[in-house]
User: What shape does this take?
Amino acid sequence: MTENTELPVVSHWIGGAEVSSSGGRRAPVFNPATGARTKDLVLADAGEIDAAVASASEAFPGWRDLSMAKRQGIIFRFRELLNARKFELAEIITSEHGKVVSDAAGEVQRGLEVVDLACGFPHLIKGGFSENVSTGVDVYSIKQPLGVVGIISPFNFPAMVPLWFFPVAIAAGNTVVLKPSEKDPSAAVWMARLWKEAGLPDGVFNVLQGDKQAVDGLLEAAEVRSISFVGSTPIAQYIYETAAKHGKRVQALGGANNHMMVLPDADLDLVADNAINSGFGSAGERCMAQSVVIAVEPVADLLIEKIRERMVNLKVGDGRENPDMGPLVTAAHRDRVAGYIDVAEQDGADILVDGRGFTVDGAEEGFWLGPTLIDNIPLTSRAYAEEIFGPVLSIVRVESFQEGMDLINSGQFGNGTAIFTNDGGAARRFQNEVEVGMIGINVPIPVPVAYHSFGGWKQSLFGSAKAYGVHGFDFFTQEKAITSRWLDPATHGGINLGFPEND
Ligand code: NAD
Assistant: This one.
């Protein structure tokens, strides 16, 4: 890619300052609502990868040893600054991602919840103490930070997903190298600047801009002790395997294809509202979007009618003007999503509402795709089985609760699901038997609050540790168990080569 020198450059953040390579590789950043290339992004080379990791390594001992009270004070200040300036960050997100600005503000708010959690970190890394496990012997465990931790994030939540990890990692005493998505890289640098304002020592939080080369650099760097990844399933699997091969702790959250089951007793107006909100919010570019509605008959026809009525009024446009839905993130992604609609059509599905070819007057170059509704999609179609990640809602008709449950459990992903019903017994059976990590009962986007943990099952999460909550603090700390005896003449045991027993 040749450099366009007139455009602003999005840089790395290393050692407490912006670092922009002089002649290295660059990638374009777009405004999805206009299709215009608005910025150039630096892509890390080997030297910049080394510099980011070295900066985090050098900052680690000082940050680890800073008193908890001082660390807590800095995190509180970051929390206050982020809360005061969240709309500034939301506008940056909208300008590069395309989501409507109120949705971008919502993403920041959900990220803030994790900062709130991190403010209370001393309670969560306390360890334990057992007195007198043997005569005069005590055992205690302490939780220590890992060192330098790597975070690799996707395009769809450029603030919230990094915020799932770095407040917890930093609170626990680690130093961070964050590699954001190339598609919307500015939010990460904005948050780095905020950390500096909050008083975080230089080098504790670094942003490394880049592509596969930057990711592989983090996976291979000996000083990087853990990798937290969020993105598509094939890359998550690659990250999981490669990080493990290099001896790192790893959590890799992958893709999704969430199903929402509607029982005949459900309130269909509530269901239709929620199907629209969940399926088309953020143009369907959410890993917790419900992309398939399983209608347990006889509700399908009536439900479709209600969904269609609502779709007529959806406003699609530039996210800065706060319509209902914005554009997709890139032209390539828009074309990929449209390709799935082609596949569904070729496989015999009925395209009830077709978003292909949609444009916005005066902004024809934007990455538009209108909300799309598909009925009778064959279960053998790739457009049913794979993750589409766009504003496409498919309806599948089944005859029974069990048939719907079997369908959900036979999928490759297990991120989120929802059931809509007024039958408590059915809902309870659903939560018990469904093989999915996050479940909504009359709630369409069941993203857990910060003090529970976020993560799916099956191909939606590689590794056992979920994001934030207690899982987050466990992931970003390692435990030491200390067995201690302070001798006095009366308890001196003399020589004994046998395995120690407690008495
Ligand atoms: P992606 O997998 O393309 O990219 C994610 C990150 O991986 C980016 O930082 C990117 O630079 C890097 N990357 C891309 N290709 C790579 C390669 N070949 N080698 C090494 N690194 C590479 O994902 P995306 O398109 O940015 O985001 C959308 C995906 O993320 C969807 O699949 C969505 O379901 C998933 N997602 C999952 C969750 C979850 O919690 N499970 C949350 C958000 C998004």
